[in-house]
Amino acid sequence: MSVATCPGCVAHPEEKAAQIANAIGRRLIFSLPGVHCAGCIGKVERGVSELSGVLEARLNLSQKRLYVDADPNLSDLIINRLASFGYTAHGLDQDILQKGRDPAGRALLLRLAVAGFAMMNVMLLSVSVWAGAEGETRNFLHWVSAFIALPTVAFTATPFFTSGMAALRHARLNMDVPISLAIVLATVMSLFETWAGGEDAYFDAALSLTFFLLLGRYLNHRTRMAARSAALELAALETKTALRKGRTLETVPIENLVPGDVVLVQPGMAVPVDGTVHKGSSDLNKSLLTGESLPEAVEPGAQVFSGTLNLTGPLEIRVTGDAGDSLLRQITELVSLAEAAKSRYTGLAERAAAIYAPMVHLVAFLTFVGWIWVTGDLRLSLNIAVAVLIITCPCALGLAVPAVMTAAVSRLFQAGALVKDGAAIERLAEVDAVVFDKTGTLTVGTPRLAPDTPDQTLITAAGLASGSAHPLSRAIAEAAQERGLGPSQIGSVKEHAGRGVEGTLDGRQIRLGRAQWLGINSSDTDSVQSWLQVGDADPVALNFVDPLRSDAADTIKTLQSSNLPVTMLTGDRMEVARPLAQKLGIERVDAGVLPEEKLNVVKDHSPRALMVGDGLNDAAAMSGAFVSIAPASAIDATRATADIILLGNSLNEIPRAIRLARQARRRILENFSIAALYNLVAIPLAIAGFASPLAAAIAMSSSSIIVSLNALRLMRSQA
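Above: the chain's sequence. Below: its structure in token form.
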């Protein structure tokens, strides 16, 4: 007898089973950049779950993603439903997102766990040897240790062996060459001593070396792989199908479209390809691509780009190019190239390794030659050379950076900033200029009605605006709600795509929309406006503002006091951007910049510039910037591109993050100094034969612990 999991299954078991069977493998994923609080979760999930054919909807607030179990054909219906709630949604491709999984991280974690387990067991056996076990008992314990250590080393040290061999094949040295040599020689010498019945075996040294080095490698990997590649996120954002017009409407992959085809784009849908408007008029939200804060009205003949969102009216678009040449694809390619360029940054650890690795081999080799020449004892000379290799093994150096990065990442997370790339903290400490995007970064990002709007004007305008999805209409409706004003009951409401809304009130025609639609020349004003006309009366202007973030001015002032010049970068017009910059005390403004131009503009400012942005139009510039930060309100693709994400709405975390990054850099340099001092004391002792491989392993572990404790001082930082 089976037990049903819900009342619906009891009432209609066959129907529910069929729905579940049909939904398997049909999970839809949407990006919702506008969700920001717990209240959004219930509103979105309930609203989507009410649709027929939707089995379940779950919103992940931190990722700003909605997961829906439903038929894929419902995708457009779900997007329209969300738009009616005021949420702009973008469909993501699940297959592409799954390519961003992290099997390398899981493999490192497995090796770390195996090495730690084996190390603890071999150390327990070694305690008996140290306690005085002799003869056959000692030999038996050595052989048991060998059976544990040999397969463990072969499995867990593979990352070091592979990297070291790759370096040698290219006739160069890296940090993994001395690491691999130390592990192999410690294991081989221990096996030889066990075979010969010697008193000492160093399997615990080989395993402890492997464990500590794997720990450093895993910490470093986690800081680099905290998020998927931005290029994957951008590719997942792209619309994969289009409604092609022919004798009938048919859904086709965008790769099958050719220049000259006509596609239908309904309100609430994203434009799938680049083209020109063939028929219809509407408002397009282009903020993802251009950063322009307001929708753009389009009519037949206007050029449109993939990735923009159709807001108000149906459009027929004639395809002008291949899907592979779209503007969204070009931005994706720019992001990929910029990420590759940034990955060439050489951190402090890599620079230290370039000097340290050759020195380690030279010292160990000279030690071996010297002892052979003095004593002629091959076994003694090898043991001392192995001790030198172990004691000089760059374990402390290997932990110096990851330990500090992990502490810094944790400290910044507590302060409200998520660091996705540990190397970004090193780069952040070196920045000498800061570039801010305007819309959505320094400003709130959504238009709001000016507070001086009269109540009666607002009541009338809200009656028309309540039925429109246009951002300015939503701002009017929200302003009326905030003031507690009920909208007028207006009849025969009709929306004219790209122009405005009209209706009737007490027998009079009322229109709300663009100045040109009402016959007004408003080219003299720099403000964002909509116009309301009641009957034959003169039209009244409704002014809108995109408010500055409350802490933007303080953040700019703090950065400038730290001798960091600040620039505003925007796709908006100069007459809109300049007044905001003056309020913030920003002298340099670059306005009207296209997405593909932003990367070069940022690099022109400084090769070590920090870029702060939130839109898709900022993605390439943020990837190519020396280091980048995105607010939590940024879209998924931009948050994936950024090195650091602000978890709250405060920009004050930016100067705080810079201060902590500079502290982290000092801790790294201190750790290098500790490692150098350790080597200055320990190497002469090992060369002189006063340190066995076991003592060398203990000394190496002690230096690693000291380095880690120094890194933890960052957790108490007040930056």
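Residues 653-687 form the longest helix (35 residues).
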